[in-house]
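Appendix C: a fully annotated inverse folding record. The material below is reproduced so that readers can follow the format used throughout the book. The structure is listed first as tokens, followed by the designed sequence.
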């Protein structure tokens, strides 16, 4: 049947062309943005998962920064402890020099002056800080090493430099042979305590290094998982774009052909 009032072929061609144009626009959006999901309608479930993964990635970055700051704290602390070691070594040397029987009273008094000044230098180190946080004092700082708020933590120690080191050598007097001999014993004890503090510092740095490595691995895995959900497959989408371009051209041609078919009625009327 030939009809003037309706043209089913034209309607079908227009419908198909409209769908092709919608798909072509989606393909263009994906390739231009690099994302498979540009709106919630593209993949509602995938978008929800991607949002949670993206938030987890950002928390991992923040946690990594916190761990890095804790590492800087420990490195700064170790730098002070290293200087304290040099001070104690010199104090030990002065104590031994003061035992020299050929030294006069004036000589040993000079050794005592330097010894006292070095002890005060140790005392000054007790107040060292890192970004306003005391490096020393004996307390333990808790560093969280998990982005999800779980209980994975590492404790770092604000070493007790006051009791174990400065407290052992403060007030000593090496101006006499007896005092110098006692000072050697005390300074040696302080050096042993300092060695323990530095060893503890090193072990805490080592543990934080592994924690930072784990966070880096976790971030890589999270980014890979998120990429599989939200990123566009350029090769596949390029093939789709070529397909929709061809369908658009064919659909436009067929719509034009369908519209022209009605003109055959005019030839019957003439």
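Designed amino acids, in order:
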């Amino acid at each position: 049947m030939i009809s003037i009032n309706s043209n089913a072929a034209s309607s079908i061609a227009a419908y198909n062309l409209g769908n092709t144009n919608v798909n072509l626009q989606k393909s263009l959006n994906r390739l231009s943005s690099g994302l498979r999901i540009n709106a919630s309608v593209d993949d509602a479930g995938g978008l929800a998962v991607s949002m949670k993964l993206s938030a987890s990635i950002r928390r991992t970055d923040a946690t990594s920064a916190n761990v890095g700051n804790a590492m800087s704290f420990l490195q700064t602390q170790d730098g002070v402890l290293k200087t304290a070691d040099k001070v104690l070594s010199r104090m030990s040397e002065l104590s031994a020099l003061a035992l020299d029987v050929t030294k006069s009273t004036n000589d040993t008094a000079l050794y005592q002056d330097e010894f006292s000044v070095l002890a005060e230098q140790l005392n000054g180190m007790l107040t060292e800080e890192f970004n306003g946080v005391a490096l020393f004092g004996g307390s333990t700082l808790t560093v969280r090493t998990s982005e999800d708020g779980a209980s994975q933590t590492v404790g770092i120690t604000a070493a007790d430099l006051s009791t174990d080191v400065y407290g052992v050598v403060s007030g000593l007097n090496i101006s006499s042979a007896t005092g110098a001999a006692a000072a050697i014993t005390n300074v040696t004890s302080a050096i042993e305590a300092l060695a323990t503090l530095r060893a503890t510092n090193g072990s805490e740095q080592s543990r934080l290094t592994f924690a930072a490595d784990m966070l880096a691995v976790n971030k890589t895995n999270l980014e890979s998982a998120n990429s599989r959900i939200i990123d566009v497959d350029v090769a596949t989408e390029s093939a789709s774009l070529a397909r929709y371009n061809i369908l658009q051209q064919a659909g436009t041609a067929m719509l034009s052909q369908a519209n022209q078919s009605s003109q055959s009625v005019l030839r019957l009327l003439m």
